[in-house]
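Thread: Newbie trying to understand structure tokens

Hi all, I'm a second-year student working on a class project, and my supervisor (Dr. K.) asked me to get a predicted structure for one chain before our next meeting. I've only ever worked with sequences, so writing a 3D structure as a token string is new to me. If someone could post the tokens and maybe explain what I'm looking at, I'd be very grateful. Here's the chain:
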Amino acid sequence: MRLPSRAAVLSLAFAWTAAAAAQTTRPPAPIGGAKAMPDQSLTAAPSVTRVESPTVVVSPSESAPQPVGFESDVYCFGYLGDRNERFPLKVHSAENVYEQTDYITHDLLYVDGGYDRGLKMGDQFWLVTPEQEVLHPFTGKSMGRLYQYRGRAVVQSIEPRTAIVRVTSACTDIPMFSYLKKFEPIPIPLARKSPPAQPGDAPTGKAKGHIVYTRDGVVVLGADTTVMVDLGAADGVQPGDFLTVFRYSTGREYGIKPVGAYWVNLPPPPGVFVPRTYLGEAAVLTVGDRWSVVRLTDSNRLIEVGDEVELK
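---
Reply by user tm_fold:
Sure, no problem. This is what the structure looks like when written as tokens:
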């Protein structure tokens, strides 16, 4: 048999190679910006990472005004009034008068007036008791009588000369012969708190006064305590204001003196000068003409009656 010539074999090999190349799968297009270089190799384009600027999230508690106290701070404290303030009604008996001497929430109390005093169903009243006179810690002069809020009551039944009131909220025990005073809602102030004063800070130059009364006769105080100061609307103080509490610390060599139920620190004598010792802060809750009820919001030392306050 005659073998094919060398030229025929080479021609057949080239034909087979061309057919195989035609059937080879074409490589996929570059992804992600890859590009072909002159030598046909694929090189990935450099990736770009976007850096987002940090987002500062402001907590609502830091940006929005917050209540500076609680309902109990306002509705269970009291106010300064005339030494002989008169009230329209008085508790003179009760449903459980033979079983109880003091009364609490849901108890029924009998008062000494009805239609003749203009009572209407649903009328609301404070239940009030007169307490001690408040004496100024340095002058010793009377600032008026404290009238303590014992709770609240609503008229449930009316007769011509008497009525039944139901205790809706009791702050503490409500004694017989408590007085009734027309209830008026007192809003809890809202305010933004600023940083407290630090040692060496200069005075603000605004109104100054003193702590003149503490509830229940407490003599040393800390944060979350409600007290009374001798600054009021006449001094430009409003609910929601903050007061800095401070003292001129001179030790005990200059003495203390009794005023009413308290012993108060005496100020430095003339010619003795010391920096302020900052004790804490207080938020104003309610305001009278010459007095305010405030809540101690911060304290870094024990606070006492007679310590000074300054409007921030």
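A couple of things are worth pointing out once you decode it. The first helix runs from residue 6 to 23. Residues 6-10, 12-44 have pLDDT under 50 and may be disordered. Feel free to ask follow-ups in this thread.
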